Amino acid sequence: MMKAKWYFINSGPCRPSYNMALDEALLDFHSKGEIPPVIRFYEWNPATLSIGYFQSAEKDIDLDAVKAQNLGFVRRPTGGRAVLHEHELTYSIIVTEQYPNMPATVTEAYRVLSEGLLVGFQNLGLEAYFSVPDTEEKRADLKSPKSAVCFDAPSWYELVVEGKKVAGSAQTRQKGVILQHGAILLELDEEKLLSVFKFSSDKVKERMRKKLPEKAVAINQLTSKKITISQCIDAFRDGFEEALDIELVPYELTSEQLEYVRKLEEKKYLTDEWNYRK
Description:
Pathway: Protein modification; protein lipoylation via endogenous pathway; protein N(6)-(lipoyl)lysine from octanoyl-[acyl-carrier-protein]. GO terms for molecular function: ligase activity; lipoyl(octanoyl) transferase activity. Catalyzes the transfer of endogenously produced octanoic acid from octanoyl-acyl-carrier-protein onto the lipoyl domain of GcvH, an intermediate carrier during protein lipoylation. By secondary structure, this protein is of the alpha/beta class. It has a single domain (about 5-275), classed as BirA Bifunctional Protein, domain 2. The longest helix is centred in the middle third of the chain and has 18 residues, at about 105-125. It contains ten helices and twelve strands. Helices cover about 40% and strands about 25% of the residues.
């Protein structure tokens, strides 16, 4: 049987507002039937703190620390908690909710789409597996997270190696289309990560400092050989092809599509109204 053809875009390092505008634009193009499903890889220039759609920038984030370290800042269209994007490969998947055999529930669709990540980690020689919260306390944490930090704890079906979270993802559904994107950590600067969050006290911050290495880990903390971004791109591209039984076809946006992205970036992701609301 012929495999379904999906588009593949490797954007490389981009500014934060452009990254989010392009993800949303691809969702729009797919919803109109202009393009097939897409898998996109990208990086961030400068290093950026992204916050979830529902988060309060003022309440959760030390915005002075973000500015002092020349970090980018953007609100995602997806939920979830704040992520510091620095030494990582970010992926996004855009696919219709009506795609063959796509589960209707968010959690199960998340598992299906994240199979590509699972195979990708295995391609890098890592024994990754899906997290399934196994106690009432862990399940309660999912409904009411204890902190604003994404890598504080794994959610349903997030990727774990040696009991620690190695990828954080978030999802939104708009116009009948699923957008799932997430961070695959190559390195983790714990001090920089902690520096951009507000904590109720120094004691709470210190507790998080001790907990974080037990909860999250980066690829290059798990391997003796340093894994590069290009090795990650190969491993995860192949992982998505295998897990989703698809063929990825390289794609470049048309000038009209790029103009659409630019306008969306300008009217939304570059504005204080979007990024700092709530």
